[in-house]
Every structure is written in C-alpha cells, then in structure tokens.
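User: My collaborator sent over this chain with a note saying "see what the structure looks like." That's all I know about it. Can you take a look?
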Amino acid sequence: MLALAVVLLTVSYAPWKQFYLAWVALVPWLLFVARAPSTKAAFWWSWLTGLAFYAANMWWLGLVTLPGTAALLVYMALYWGLAAIILRNCRLLPVGTDPYAYAARGPEGSNAWRPVAWTFGAAALWVALEWLRGWLFWGGLPWLYLGHSQTPLLAMCQIADVTGAYGVSFWVVLINMVVALVILRPLPSRQLAGTKMAVALLLLLSLVYGIWRMNEWRSVTEPGPKVMVVQSNLLQTNDADKSQNQDFVGRHFELTRKGLLAGGPTTQPGEATPPAATPSTAAATAPANPKKVQLVVWSETVNPPLNAEFGQALRKTGLARLDAVARQLQEADQAMRDLAARIDADVVTGAYYVEGIAPAGKGFREVGKRNSVYLYPRGGAPSTQRYDKIHLVPFGEFIPFKESLPPLHALLNTFNPYGYDYDLTSSAEDAMTVFSTPAREQPDAEPWRFVTPICFEDIDARLVAAMFRPADGETEKRADFLVNVTNDGWFRFNQNALHFQTAIFRSIENRVPSARSVNTGVSGFIDSLGRAGPVVGPRVEDWAIKRLQIDRRVTFYTLHGDAFALGCLAASAWIVGRPLWRWGRNWIGRRSTADKK
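Assistant: Without extra context I'll predict from the sequence alone. Here is the result:
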C-alpha cells in the first residue's frame, strides 16, 4: 500500500502529469496510518514512505553531492512521519477497529459535523507541514508541494492568487481524506454526507472562481515587450568552471544571432549542434534585430564577473597573470555592450559580481562573490543595473555556520559538492532590484519593469511575492513581469520539468507573465494564468520569442503572502495543542491527587 502511494504520487507530477492520481495517491498511506498497530509503527513506515517518495523524485541531487542528498532525504521524510503521529494521536483519522474512535458517541446525527472538522483539519495539517518544510533552515525547500501536481488543471489552480500553491494542496488532501473515510467507514454513510457535501462545495467554488479569473484575462491584459530567451544546453559537472567557459558564452552569442535572424528554432532534438562563436566574433556579426525583440535573456552565470571594481582590484596586485584576467573580464563586458548596441535591444545576462580580492596564503582569494544578473541597455552603454541573489542554496552556494560555529561548518563542509571552499555572499532581503526596459513601440510611454529571481529563487513564493508587492503608498505592482535565469545543467530527467511546473505558480500567484532562460531547459514563457508556451524542452539548444501580455491585477497573495498557509499553521497548532493541554491538565490532576493521598 505504501509503495502504491509513492508510485501514484510520483506520476502525478511532471513530466508524467497524471494530476488526477494525486486525488487518491495519499489514500493507501492514510489507510495504513489508521490501521497501523501502533503510533511507532505508523511513524517509521510513514518516514520510509516519505524517504522513498523523495528519493524517487530528488535522486538527481546525488549527481552533485551524495552525502548531502542522503541527509536531505532523511530530513524531508520526517514530515511524513510527523504527519502520521498527529493524524493518529489527534484523532483526525479513525484509529484501530473502533468505528467511533475519532467521534464521541451520542444521539444519531449529532456527530455529523465532526468528520467535516477533522477532514478539513487534516488538510490544514498537510499545508502547515508543507509551509514549515518550505521555511525552516535557511529558507527551506518549497519543492514537490502536493498542489504543484495540478498545473494541467489550470482552472482549479487559479485560487493560488489568494492562497498560493497551498490552497491547491488543501483541496487535493480533502479529496484524499473523503475517499479514505468512505473506505474506512467510521460512521454511517449519512453522517459522512455532510463531509462529502462540504468538500464538493469547496471544489465547486474553486472551479467557479478559476473560470471567472480565466475569462476576465483578455479584459485586464495589454501587450507588453517582445522577449527572447536563449538556451545553450551545456551540461554541468562539479569540476567545470562554467563562468570561464568560452564555448558556454559563445553559444549564447551564436544563438542570439541566429534567433534574431530567423525567429524560429535553430536545431531539433538529435540534430548536430552548430559550432559556437567566440564572444567577440559573435557580437560583431550580430544582426540589427529585424524581429524587433526588446529584451534578450541569457541564463544563470553565463559570464564571469562583469563589474569593473573586480578588474581594478586584479590590476592593483601588479601580477601579470591577474592583469591578463582583468583584460579578459573587460573584453567580456565590452562584448556584452557591443551586442546590446548591435541588436538595439536590452540584454539580461547571469554573471558573477566580486567585490575584490584579499591575500590568501601564497595567492589571493575572491571577496564578496555574488550570483548576479546584469542588464545591458540598448545602445552600448555600460551596465548600471544589477540584482544579487538573496536566497542562496545551502551546500550548493554556501556552507552554513562559517562564522558562528566554525567546527560545525568544517563538519558540514564534507557535504560540499565542489571539493573546495565555495561560499557566495547573499544580498539583503530588501535589495530586490526592479529593472526597466523602455517601450520600443511607444517611446513616450512608461518603461516596462521586471524582476529577476535567480535559479531556485523562483520556487520561493514568499520572495517572489515580495518582489511584486506595491511599495508603501502605492497601489500598482512594483514590476510588470518576471524574468528567471537558471542553470539546471547540474541535474537530469524530472528535475527540469518539476522546476518549470513549480514556476507556473509564481505567475498565477502574482498575475504576471514569466520569461525563463535555463541552461538546459525548460526555457520559455508562462502567462499570468499559468499557461505555458512557447517552451524549449530539456537537452535542446534553442531559443524562444514571445510578446508578453501584461496583467495589471494586484492579487491578495502578492499583498499578503502566505496568509492562508499561516492560518492552516494556526489551526494545526490548535489541533495539536488541545489534546496536549488536556493531557497536561489530567497529569497535574493525577499528581495532585497522589500528593493528597
């Protein structure tokens, strides 16, 4: 039964997208939790189920770090075990063979409301645990939420502009709970009728809301900029230095040139990859943008450090080899400026930012290295706008406790996938750069504004909502659309599709179109309803071009973030706290009676 739950839940997600299986995928697990011989057995077998599920869907992390992956899977699976304990001990499921174990006996019909309360309580519990998993420990890991599986059913996902993806997880759990209760038969069928009706009503309201939101789309959107995203399809390994790989940079130049000339795909899967040009020659032969693309987007860390301060610091050392590096960095910056001038379009590129260097042993080390996005304006002017990544990935971009607990940091460094000390510097939480690009067709119009979450930042719903949240005293969103630059070249198979599926919710939650440039897919576009296309799939060297449709709606989720999930957390705290309070009061009473005797 538990293996069946893992299989059903796994194929519910991309790339298989059998979303309807998620409606019953938890049922085998729920039946086991209800009938397990003990709470201890329910915990350990549920933990094992979670371990199998995350291993089946996150095995690709092992390509970067096996020890880190093992530790993460063990931790993530604990949430399944914790859910089992609460479901049993807080009577959210009928435990054992007593059909009335989770509802006190009384006159016929008096307990009809109890299965409704506990069914919705179980859904709130699941959402609360998802929220905790996506928040604890350096920003958490909001990955593989149950609601993410429902993107093929977009009408039922539109409530995310109020609840976030958590609201979709909520109704999926409700369906699973109703099916489990029907099988367990804890009460006569007419006493479960209220539960069925309540869940059916909520599903109907969600569907009606979704249809309404989708039908009003044309009346609330307007044409925006034409954007091009580039996908180079270069795989990554732990020992590859992608920022210095001229083939990696050259591929982006070459694909930009071909994309602007043709406006269609370069290669199809299985075809030979064209030879890559060097940055200088590709920039010199770039077309004059006959497709009138306004913004070209390159993927994460395509370029080396592009800030002039780093080059100046290298030259101050007086070392010939570092002076040569400084010249190369200057040439890379000039190549980007030449490209923007040649195509008369703004260019967004992922790159590094380094504050400077400091002595380290017999050499030097980089200081203040950041994962950044640069905007090169049309006309060839220097880049003056930059965004530095805020939410860094633990063990991928930094090792925790370096300053606070050095011994623990040294221990955790054994999970470092690079084999050397690789710690990036994060930006401040409020340093959310809003880029702007002038409207090509209407020079006097207000420029289009966009934000650029980097890589897995686009799975952080709280951060993305904050990027669009209106400033104090304002009523409009801070930006018009989202640009995500990502390098998923480290990973394989379902990671690419899962990342894209998760990103769909950021567009729905904030009612913004998204443009994604990913090294190895999935690149492409998502509109403010979550509809995808055109897209470039994994393991393909290609590009895509689309005119975005700007959505002016400001959503409840943009304004208030995880309010729904926090409400579920509060409800779960009450569910757990109530029996604990009763147990503590009874324990004190027993001790008091014993003392009197």
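A starting point for your reply to your collaborator: The two ends are 51 Å apart (CA to CA).
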